[in-house]
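Fill in residues.
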């Protein structure tokens, strides 16, 4: 059960291969990219314990020697210290300009390792082996790499496309249900931003997908990656359409900041809540059908996902404070907040034309 999505970016084009058993095929799939039979793998200790052995066995079977750095799991790893450690380690392992670095892990590892690869010797190639649903459908594709800053998430980074992405859907079976559903928040995002029939398909198939239906998982990942590839091909560096991929993210980034980037709110959970709030804002502004927010909320609730601010444990800052936290969002241009809104399910657009009070009303209503 394998699908391939091509990301057509000229000299930086690459394939995303999606399906079962890919970890055990990694050696033969990565071999064509190598100029010498040696790679460096960066992972985190949780993912490493589960999947590193299979990856290294597969590389070894193809005569590829590998060396590995396992970083601590968690968002705190996406910061200067672990970046420095990674780059220094790659240099100490004598990784050269023509070598390939492998990122084995979720979004944190993919973003950090991609950035390390972007700056090491002014750029070495890297391969993404995303192990979370979120990384498979979003962060491993499209070349956004980077780390967080005390000022906010993902504020330091570079566009650096991978040479290959292998999204092994078998590894999704090792995710906790919470992590899986957080990634599913990004899948829902694709339906909402550009494909109403896909959202409808998710309404019908989401529960089976969450329970482990592999054909449904492969289809959902493939569809999401195809949508992302189409958008990235049109707008690699986010001068326009790529901002659509940030549906729900203006709200999400404020909520993540308010919860200290902690386990209280996973990124994908924030995206799902943010999408629900973007739908509410769109309906309140009279841009989209009034029934859309409740339909979206119903699907998130049916999946057992967080859908409102009140689903986040503990106290949150007031709505004014949350709105101020949105001011650090990368979508701020000339000090004006930009939102991704919907004309309806499957029809998102970018706008800066939103009054502060309308956003406050949405934040108040979601409590
Ligand atoms: N995650 C949004 C993007 O890659 O543009």
């Amino acid at each position: 059960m394998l699908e391939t999505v091509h990301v057509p970016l000229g000299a930086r084009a690459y394939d995303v291969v999606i399906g079962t058993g890919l970890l055990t095929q990694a050696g033969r799939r990565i071999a064509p990219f190598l100029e010498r039979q040696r790679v460096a793998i960066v992972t985190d200790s949780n993912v490493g314990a589960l999947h590193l052995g299979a990856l290294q066995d597969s590389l070894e079977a193809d005569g590829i020697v590998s060396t590995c750095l396992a970083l601590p799991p968690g968002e705190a790893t996406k910061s200067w210290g672990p970046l420095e450690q990674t780059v220094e380690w790659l240099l100490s392992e004598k990784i050269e300009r023509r070598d390939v670095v492998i990122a084995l892990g979720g979004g944190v590892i993919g973003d950090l390792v991609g950035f390390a690869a972007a700056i090491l010797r002014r750029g070495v190639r890297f391969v993404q082996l995303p192990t979370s649903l979120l990384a498979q459908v979003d962060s491993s594709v499209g070349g956004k790499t980077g780390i967080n800053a005390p000022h906010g998430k993902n504020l330091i980074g570079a566009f650096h496309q991978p040479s290959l992405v292998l999204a092994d859907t078998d590894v999704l079976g090792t995710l906790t249900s919470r992590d899986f559903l957080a990634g599913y928040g990004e899948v829902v995002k694709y339906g909402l931003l550009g494909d109403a029939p896909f959202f409808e398909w998710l309404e019908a198939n989401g529960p089976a997908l969450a329970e482990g239906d592999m054909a449904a998982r492969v289809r959902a990942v493939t569809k999401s990656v195809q949508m992302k590839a189409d958008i990235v091909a049109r707008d690699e560096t986010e001068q326009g359409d790529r901002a659509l991929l940030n549906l729900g993210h203006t709200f999400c980034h404020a909520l993540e900041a308010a919860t200290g980037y902690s386990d209280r709110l996973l990124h994908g959970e924030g995206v799902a809540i943010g999408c629900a709030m973007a739908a509410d804002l769109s309906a309140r502004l009279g841009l989209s059908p009034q029934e859309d927010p409740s339909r979206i909320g119903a699907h998130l609730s049916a999946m057992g996902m967080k859908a409102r601010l009140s689903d986040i444990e503990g106290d949150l800052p007031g709505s004014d404070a949350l709105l101020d936290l949105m001011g650090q969002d990368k979508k701020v241009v000339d000090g004006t907040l930009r939102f991704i809104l919907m004309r309806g399910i499957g029809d998102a657009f970018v706008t800066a034309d939103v009054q502060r009070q309308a956003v406050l009303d949405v934040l108040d209503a979601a409590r």
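The chain has 13 helices and eleven strands.
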